[in-house]
Specification:
heterodimer, A: 318 residues, mainly alpha, MetI-like fold, 2 domains, 14 helices, 0% strand, disordered C terminus, B: 296 residues
Amino acid sequence: MRRYLLRRLLESVVTFVLVTIVVFLGVRALPGDPARTLAGEESDPATVAQIRHDYLLDRPLPVQYARYVLKALTGDLGRSARTGLPVRSTIGHALPVTLQLAMFAMVIAVLIGVGSGVVAAVRRRTATEWAANSVALLGLSVPNFWFGLMLVLVFAIAFPILPASGFVSLFDDPVQSFRHLLLPAIVLGTALAAVIMRQTRSAMLEALSADYVRTARAKGLGGSRVVLGHALRNSLIVVVTIVGLQLGVLISGAVVTEQIFVLPGFGKLTLDAVFTRDYPMIQGVVLVTTTAYIGINLFVDLLYSVIDPRIRVGGAVL
Amino acid sequence: MTVLDLSTVEAPAAGTLPATRRRVLRRLLRNPLAVLGAVVVLIAVGAALLANVVAPYPYAQTDFSAALQPPSPEHWFGTDYLGRDMFSWVLYGLRVSVLVAVMSVGLSMALGVPLGLLAGYYGFLDPPVSRLTDTLLAFPFLILAVGLAAILGPSLATATIAIGIGQIPQVVRVTRGETLRLRGMDYVTAAIAGGASDTVVLRRHILPNAMNTLIVQATVAAPAAIIGEAVLSFLGLGVRPPTPSLGIMLASAQPFFRDGPWMAVFPGVAIVALTLALNLFGDGLRDAFDPQESRR
């Protein structure tokens, strides 16, 4: 167990180092003087000189890189070229918006995904399974941002019952927050639901044919007790890890959703940074997401190995 | 799943492949959904490639007297805020979708297949290739696209590269898995014992037999690429105006939700039709290649 832990930790560190190198070199790959780029287009020579000094741009690349990583590790991601505010606090202000959206979306995704996955597995070779599979296929074929536009068209324009844009924090006004986040959360949630549905279905199919389910049935337990109490409980292990690994989809989805519904979150911040060529902000945003991604991947892997001993013993899971 | 693929054991050489192909085709034709998917894909791709012949109007032709008209016999999909014919626009937009899909899937295959072959065949290359794919996987698709758009500027090429790179890990994973499976097969062992060089084994014995899986992978990747292009162009990270893209059309429809909702409807319907058809065709193809696996 300890060996497996160590190996996964080491692998994650290597991946993290590679990611920071890619991000670090990315900014240096920009055309022109990096100091001028980092300072923003309309900056005076003094600022540019200050930045060149701050970022050690007059020193060799390895020195620059070491300095960059050390500063990033202490949470110093530089200042926005557009607003002059620290990148870290700007991201800190945007994250709660995205987290509230993500939590809400996750609830919707799990309700739809696990629900329809269980139904599809239990009602095999019936119209119900066919319907559940068709909806999942449709979910994979309908671009999420277009689904979002259609929801706005129907529920905010044709029948104006929900707001089309804006954000209210859950802690300020729960009712308004719910109304503002409902459509975005449906858009983001359904993006995840299709994947969760497929995973739940195949995990349930496997569980339902397992010996312990047959034993439970032989003991005389009723259909729903077996399905919910035994099969689903064991399938959820797989589902939970899948949900964890969907972070990338969640982040990409948040960028699109926040753009459609004009939510001042992490995704909107990311896009605005690109359009205003705010390079320190882009660098910070990319570093924060990739680090979170590696961290959560590691956490999910470890969680999985605690739950399922075959993984750390065999080590040959393809 | 340890179902022995008899066709590859009996007849691994390329010379007998047509018989297998015919069997696959016959199974494919028996699946009505797959045939429907293939027909829709062929019509959509054909219309897109022949857009300059098929489209009733030049896509850039503006006509302010006919701005924001709902669908009619003259304008099947209505007109946009500049009076441009939406049907013609959609056809030209599909052309960009198809172009980006073909190029990005080609890019991911060109880089991913060799990496997967090497990682699966040479054990010592597995860890470095895994770290490389892990690194790529750490960049969520849109964050990767954001980074590339920041460096290269938003364009058709940027969208293609972002989508292509984003799909590399999946191609590597699939190719590596197939290589590992095939390397353990008797005919490969026999070829190696017979003195075949690594290059010959990889090119003549492993790659051709991994082809089915790679084709299925491409049918999964293509619809994802089409949606990817639309998303990137919608956000302003991909194709830029005046190049017609379905994503740009949807972005420009947003201010006209009240006056011209059809502007937001038809480009999306076109994307859904094409991706759904590709997914149906891909599912059918997977079943036709490997009936046992899919009947599970």
